Amino acid sequence: MFQDTISTQPVIEAERFILRPLRKSDAGLIAMYTADKRVAEGTRAIPHPLPPGATESYITRAMSDTRSEDVWALDGSAQGLAEVLGVVSLTHLDDNQSEVGFWVGPGFWNTGFASEAVAALVEANPHKARTLFAEVFQDNPGSARVLTNAGFEYLGDAESWSVARGARVPTWTYLKKMA
């Protein structure tokens, strides 16, 4: 039987959805959400406009056994919500540290889904990281609140490249000590 996810990622329970590894069938909803310029410009890596095949390539990388980033879909289907509300990720860094990333579809902004997903991921700490990092663009205070709600502390200002914006963008960097 064909299995469309090769993953040792755990399924993580949240109150209104589960966090589960991505699967190929997520491509349509992910492409629809990430084609929105506002979503793309809120991230470092999502291009705008979204090129053909970009979503499928992203999912293939997320499902690879040699990946350095674990990506979970916020799946609300058991509660009558969409099968993909957004994604949350952890990227392995050096020295037992990981970086958190997240976005939710625009139709779910201001619902608390991002806060709930990040809090569930932090609580589960599937990488067994001693420190978690995250950064948000300074023109996205909502994402900064998601991090502070999950116990992250402001570390400092920096800047990161945004593919969608084609420019370096000022960021706020956050840290959460896990042990």
From TrEMBL:
<dbReference type="Pfam" id="PF13302">
    <property type="entry name" value="Acetyltransf_3"/>
</dbReference>
<protein>
    <submittedName>
        <fullName>GNAT family N-acetyltransferase</fullName>
    </submittedName>
</protein>
<feature type="domain" description="N-acetyltransferase">
    <location>
        <begin position="30"/>
        <end position="179"/>
    </location>
</feature>
<dbReference type="InterPro" id="IPR000182">
    <property type="entry name" value="GNAT_dom"/>
</dbReference>
